[in-house]
Amino acid sequence: MLSFGIGTSTYYGEMTDQFVSSYLKPSLSANFQKYITGNTAIRVGLAGGQIAASDDLSQTFGRQARGLHFRSTIVELHTAFVVEFIKDNDFGTITLGPHLSPYGFMGFGMFYHDPKARYQGVWYQLQPLGTEGQFLEGGKGPYSRLQISFPMGLGLNLRLTEFTGIGIEMGYRITMTDYLDDISTVYPNQASLFESRGAAAAALSMKTDLYPFEEGMIRGNPETNDGYMFMNFSFNYFLDKFKK
């Protein structure tokens, strides 16, 4: 089965203390799925979407004072095991007609992300700036923009004819990084950051007009990794009939 989807993407991390509709961004997907049995399959998928958030939209004073924001594009390649909960190997008979098939999936993937933020009207890549002091003496070095994900979710396919159908799917990605939004640990020494990485790095590391943050104060939560989600509507093309 081939499927092509369009929908929305969003993320969970240090800037998501509440749902904000403007955080929903566009996404695209393409999957190839090969049936193993009548109701199990292996899928290889390619997906891409945007994620974004801003502390300015938070209802918490501490996050408003932090005043950070970001946007990023995610490109993901994954493979997953799919289980359809209702087997429809009799599709095409006069008595059955179109068939509705709910399913679940779980898998493994790799994705690339590149968080950016705006300073004086220009969008800067945040990872090369080292906004948490990654490049300073004693810093732990930059995080990788290529990361591992573990996709899982639920979907619903409606097979309309022998070879065509439509579907809807919602999938969450557990990741191994806390830097989808470039926020994880504590504030670095701002003077050293300014001297080493420049004015943009210092400005995008700490916003000081609401609250005077200091070196070592909490900037994020390294105990919890970030995650992201895709919700897509798809058009499906079935390459062969169901296996008995």
Note the topology.
Blueprint: E1 2-12, E2 25-35, E3 40-54, H1 61-66, E4 69-84, E5 99-112, E6 116-119, E7 122-125, E8 146-159, E9 164-175, H2 190-197, H3 199-205, E10 227-237
Antiparallel strand pairs: 1-2, 1-10, 2-3, 3-4, 4-5, 5-8, 6-7, 8-9, 9-10
Helix pairs in contact: 2-3
Description:
This protein is mainly β and 244 residues long. The protein has a domain at 2-117 and 141-179 and 227-237: Porin (Beta Barrel), CATH 2.40.160.20. Helix content is 9%, strand content 46%. It has helices at residues 61-66, 190-197, 199-205; strands at 2-12, 25-35, 40-54, 69-84, 99-112, 116-119, 122-125, 146-159, 164-175, 227-237. The strands form two sheets. It has an eight-stranded antiparallel barrel. Strands 6-7 form a two-stranded antiparallel ribbon. α2 (190-197) packs antiparallel against α3. The longest helix has 8 residues, at 190-197. It is elongated, with a radius of gyration of 22 Å. 34% of the residues are buried. Mean pLDDT is 91; it is low at 91-95.
